[in-house]
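Quick question, first post here. What does this chain look like in 3D?
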Amino acid sequence: MRRLYDLSPVTIPERPTEDDHRPLPAPLSEAIVVRARDVEDGDLVVADFNEKKDGRRVADYFYEPYIANIRSLCGECAACVTDRSDVADVADAGTRLAVLGYDHTAGCEIWPANAPVLILPGPWTETQVAAAISTTDEDKPEAAQEEPEGSGYATVADIGRAVAALLGSGWTAWDGPWGVTSRLSGPTDRDQVVIQIHPHLEEICIRGYGHETFPRGKPNSKDLPAVALALAFLIHQEQH
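> Answer (accepted):
Ran it through. Tokens below.
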């Protein structure tokens, strides 16, 4: 029997079903909350609990759940060594921290060992997870469609990379599903941001830090530096 998280009360709200939240391969009712140290290889990591409301930790769902790949701290990646911290300086890091995965860009997926994690118990395979998100071309969001050559629009990937570069050390960006989002990961577990060009309103949506904003419409390539600077400024404000 898996040990369930019992250090503080938690709330598991209904999971969003927008296009940028990938479907789960099993009902949410089968998910459980465990400590990060008790996550096992093959579990599907669905949400963290960084947000609090009325004294309870509230599940904050990942846009793209990932399969846990339990490993030791590498001590060298962008997550282990930042401008602000170094896991080598953390006493008993091997027991106080848990690594639930590894990304070749962002590095170790580091969690406090006692932090609550919402998971679908595994083992899951990439094939099973991919089957849950398979979709026909007509079901894909409109923003995934290719822009006509010479349209001059900046892609969401262009925007994400430009914003990450402006935010500086510890920030990385990579493309989300179907090419409609850009995911940014910062120096801490809280610094998780998704940039999306809304498929119908043609507005740029920033999701992170518990809310979303729509700062402006779809930009032309020539506007990219100014747009990236504006978005980086908004994210920097939320970060601090």
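The chain has two domains: 10-133, 137-239.
The first strand starts at residue 10 and ends at 11.
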